[in-house]
Specification:
Blueprint: H1 4-16, H2 20-32, E1 35-36, H3 37-44, H4 48-61, E2 64-69, E3 72-77, H5 79-94
Antiparallel strand pairs: 1-3, 2-3
Helix pairs in contact: 1-4, 2-4
Length: about 100
């Protein structure tokens, strides 16, 4: 039986990827590397508060990492965590006794 915390973690992961804007953020970070929030705002043409909301979802799920550098917040894609969550999702689908 899958634990509630395990299921909540997978739910946050999949929910974070369930939006076109967040998928675009992940795609940019995964293919082009680290970016400041201001550059993501400019590239995606959305407001800074809306970008912060999307980034909060992605960081909560563990897909994106943020780091404050002076007055700037830089974002990066966490490849290892993403791969781990993908693997855990697959195991949950095919194996009812996954941890």
């Amino acid at each position: 039986m899958l634990s509630q915390s395990y299921l909540r973690e997978l739910k946050a992961f999949h929910r974070a990827l369930g939006d076109v804007t967040r998928l675009r953020v992940v795609q940019i970070l995964a293919t082009e590397g680290e970016f400041p929030v201001s550059e993501l705002v400019r590239r995606l043409r959305i407001s800074a508060p809306l970008m912060s909301w999307h980034l909060r979802r992605l960081t909560h799920a563990g897909i994106v990492r943020t780091e404050r550098v002076g007055r700037e917040v830089r974002c990066s894609f966490d490849r290892e965590r993403y791969a781990e969550l993908q693997e855990r999702s697959f195991r949950a689908l095919v194996n009812r006794s996954a941890p």
